[in-house]
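A common beginner's mistake is to predict each chain separately and then try to dock the pieces by hand. The better habit, illustrated here, is to supply every component at once so that their relative placement is modeled jointly.
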Amino acid sequence: MNILHISDLHFGPRHWEGNDKVLLKKINSFDTDIVINTGDNTTDGLEDEYAKAGRFLKGIKCKNVISIIGNHDKRNMRSHELFRKYIYNPEIIYIPEMEKTNKQHLFLNRDITRVKDNFTDINFTKSIIVNNKQVLIISIDSNELYRDEGYVEKKVLNAVSKRINHIEHDLPLLLIHHSLLGTDECPLKNSSSIIDFVHEHKIENVFCGHTHELELMRTTDLYNGNSFTQFMCGSLSSINHANDDNMFLYYKNLCSNDMHLYVIRIFLEEGKVHFKEEMVF
Ligand SMILES: [Fe+2]
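With all components supplied together, the output reads:
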């Protein structure tokens, strides 16, 4: 099974000045079963940014393109509806409104907004069969409305756990915008709850974005013996800090003995796009 991983497209003011069509052509030149996109499709969560990101993603030829929402996408009360309209429209895992939650603005007050869906999180699972294997993509929304730090509501995790326990699968893969292991300026505040969730469901592969940096980490709980690998992809197409390259990742034969990971770095020189491919292992 081959997976191509993109992240942090940042349509809007932070979008790069390179040619998106060249980028699409390169992405489409890879043999991929699933394309995963780990959030920050927009810069400010505005409708025109969502529409542009949606048009770009529709240009990807792979039949399974799975996108999640990022903190930049969640900057207004309609973010979750715009995400579903333009980017990806999964079957959302809801929790009852009457439950007390700790996540800020998880529900919007319908008395003062006319937002149709007042539950602002996009949590979902998606089953895809690849080479006779049941792959279960699990997406946890780590973003809080209006904020850059992440927070995951435990009641949501319980609801997602229930769903997972009812779906037969061979290979669970977790997509989440924030790192579970990161210590960046805007981290996931309660990462330990989601690390427990990862161990509970024997998830061995976690995919994230957010920091615009490449980070590939394998972690082991020496007491319980659980391990997982976290693949953090840098930004595909944002204007970056001087030391961060634009990139995407390609996982060839994921979870087999013959697995290879490639980083495809993207450079803009005098308006022209160049790619540099590196095999990590
Ligand atoms: Fe982000």
